[in-house]
């Protein structure tokens, strides 16, 4: 897709988003294939690779790489950060799909890991992916400076832990059958989903030395994007079929989970997603960075996606 997206006062050129995406995905897929599950014993590597490779939108790696590009970040650090955040995302899906959590049988258009390999192998595979994420972020200092490694690890650990993704999942499980306000729903998803999306942008930014105002503007962009992603996810859970969605639709309603659709209605949720998109684009403008075309296009992609 080629799009003309004015994203700053100095950049209104045509941006070939599809070509950019294809190039970044190729880099990411090659790196993941080279790093994930290699030499893991007792078929553990098969479960790890099944969970990560050949599936998924790779939104989080793309956000890392787009943010790093916008701030002229260190390429090696950005690629490792992109892969690391995808491994955390993949491990969380493996565990979330298990019978003790969401008990789902379909993910990315294929059987979930515990269905394919058994619960024990799925649990260990998720654990191994989580550990590998931080291993990737800590190569030799010749590849990535030690201070940058530490910052990247800190961002990812905070986003994945009790004050981020894991905490949000705990709130989600505790909220089944409860009526949540918009503020409570935003808080839950800000941790469960938004934290890792925000961390993706922050990790890309951390691949360079960036001023505080720029960091803050891109953090506002990431926050709006994170909420928009979940709003659209809730809409798709209602309107998309399994073949399009790649996972079981209607699960939230069946499990009596609060969603933006249950709170706002279908049209209200769609309108809210567009409001959040404008907030994200405004934050990019306020960053005053020369080239944020990839970040802008990713925001549009999140809101307009069909799966």
UniProtKB/TrEMBL annotation:
Keywords: Isoprene biosynthesis, Magnesium, Metal-binding, Transferase. One of its GO terms (molecular function) is prenyltransferase activity. InterPro entries: Isoprenoid_synthase_dom_sf, Polyprenyl_synt, Polyprenyl_synt_CS, Prenyl_diphosphate_synthase. GO terms for cellular component: cytoplasm. CDD domains: Trans_IPPS_HT (cd00685). SUPFAM superfamilies: Terpenoid synthases (SSF48576). Its cofactor is Mg(2+). The keyword Cell membrane does not apply. It comes from the Bacteria. GO terms for biological process: terpenoid biosynthetic process. Belongs to the FPP/GGPP synthase family. This is Polyprenyl synthetase. It comes from Comamonas kerstersii.
């Amino acid at each position: 897709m080629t799009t003309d997206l004015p994203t700053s006062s100095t950049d209104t050129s045509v941006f070939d988003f599809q070509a950019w995406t294809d190039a970044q995905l190729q880099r990411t897929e090659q790196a993941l294939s080279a790093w994930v599950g290699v030499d893991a014993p007792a078929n553990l590597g098969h479960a790890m690779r099944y969970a990560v490779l050949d599936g998924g939108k790779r939104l989080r790696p793309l956000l890392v790489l787009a943010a790093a590009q916008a701030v002229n970040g260190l390429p090696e650090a950005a690629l490792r950060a992109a892969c690391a955040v995808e491994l955390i995302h993949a491990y969380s899906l493996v565990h979330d799909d298990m019978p003790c959590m969401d008990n789902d049988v379909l993910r990315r258009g294929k059987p979930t890991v515990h269905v394919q390999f058994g619960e024990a192998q799925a649990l260990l595979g998720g654990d191994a992916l989580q550990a590998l994420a931080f291993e990737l972020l800590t190569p030799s200092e010749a590849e990535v400076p030690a201070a940058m490694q530490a910052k990247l690890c800190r961002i990812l650990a905070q986003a994945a832990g009790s004050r981020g993704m894991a905490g949000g999942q705990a709130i989600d499980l505790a909220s089944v059958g409860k009526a949540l306000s918009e503020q409570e729903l935003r808080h839950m998803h800000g941790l469960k989903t938004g934290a890792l999306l925000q961390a993706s942008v922050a990790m890309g930014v951390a691949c360079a030395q960036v001023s505080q105002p720029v960091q803050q503007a891109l953090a506002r962009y990431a926050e709006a994007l994170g909420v928009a992603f979940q709003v659209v996810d809730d809409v798709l859970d209602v309107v998309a079929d399994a073949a399009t969605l790649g996972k079981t639709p209607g699960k939230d309603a069946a499990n009596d989970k609060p969603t933006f659709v249950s709170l706002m209605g279908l049209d209200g949720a769609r309108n809210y997603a567009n409001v959040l998109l404008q907030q994200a684009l405004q934050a990019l403008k306020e960053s005053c960075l020369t080239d944020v075309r990839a970040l802008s296009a990713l925001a549009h992609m999140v809101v307009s996606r069909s799966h």
